[in-house]
Amino acid sequence: MKFNPFSQLTAVSALFFAASMTVQAHSPFIAPQAYTIDGDGTAVIGGFAEAPFASEFALSGFAVAVNDPNGQVQQLELKGTKFLTAADAETKAEGTYKITATRENKLEFANVNGKWLRVMESHNEQLPPLAERNFITPAEVTAKIKKVSSTRYEQLIGYFSKAKLTDTVLQANQKGLDVQFSQHPNSLTTAQPLTLTFTVDGKVHKGLDIVAIKQWASVDEKEIEIKQTSNEKGQVQLAFPQAGQYIIEVNSPATAEKAQPAAQTYRLNIALQVN
Predict the structure, then answer these.
(1) Residue 258: which residues within 8 A CB-CB, separation 6 or more?
(2) What pTM, to 2 d.p., does this model score?
(3) So which residues are the signal peptide here (predicted)?
(4) Would you tell me which of 18, 48, 105, 202 could form a disulfide with 174, CB atoms 3.0–4.6 Å apart?
(5) DSSP 33
(6) Cβ contact 58:83 at 8 Å
(7) What is the rounded CA–CA span in Å between residue 9 and residue 145?
């Protein structure tokens, strides 16, 4: 769907309706200012965007860091405007850097007439009936209603390189949701499909929902969106039809409204440049 200027008004209304929860249509991202650099410093940018990388709300609630080619970690201080977040990163070492932004959300769900509804505040004074909603306010939860908790782990990542490509920051992580690339993330081309392998706590993870969306380069460009699901080996293969910047959104599958929410769910958004 192309960007609609009127959707901003709808999104803002939805933000107030959902209180502290960001609208699902606005996805968080973190990305380097440039994927290839030549200097002792660069900028990292982030935000919440409906169209890929077109930030409409500043990034908040995430801890942001940069891992350098020597294995050192820089904690970054986020600054910015209402619409975009930025941070400075030192880049004295040659090689590949990894940007990470992480947060955990503790969610509560309540079982109402066999349906699991998210427990959350609302600033809307006139709410539709519970049967027409996918959430319930804390004031509506009685002692007889069964509740469960779920933790949502969110991670935003991106890579950039100075002078040469190295693999120190590409080593597998045995904790949480992790991704491995069939080729270096700073050497992607349209000529060679990319295979991504996903693991959770070191074990391959099937059934993840993956969507790759290209950043628009012109107002009349058609949207490029690639949808996949990780297979038995935890893998998906992405063939990029055009060069450009892509956001890869990886999510735990949505549960049916009558199924009890999982104790842990994951979101991983990856910023990539394809040449």
Answers:
(1) 114, 115, 116
(2) 0.86
(3) 1-25
(4) 202
(5) S
(6) yes
(7) 35
pLDDT, tens only, 31-64: 999 999 999 999 999 999 999 999 999 999 999 9
13: its two tokens: 């209304």
**Could you report the per-residue pLDDT of 2-30, keeping only the tens digit for each?**
333 333 333 333 333 333 333 346 899 99
Q: Which tokens hold the place of 143?
A: 């002692």
Q: How far apart are CA 113 and CA 135, in angstroms?
A: 13
DSSP structure class, residue 44: E
* The two structure tokens encoding residue 26: 């606005």
Q: By the 8 A CB rule, do 11 and 23 touch? A: yes
Residue 126: which residues within 8 A CB-CB, separation 6 or more? none
- Residue of 191, 190, 185, 231 lying closest to 209 (CA atoms): 231
> Rounded to 10 degrees, what is the CA torsion of 16, 61, 96, 191?
-20
**Could you give the 3-state DSSP secondary structure of residue 149?**
strand
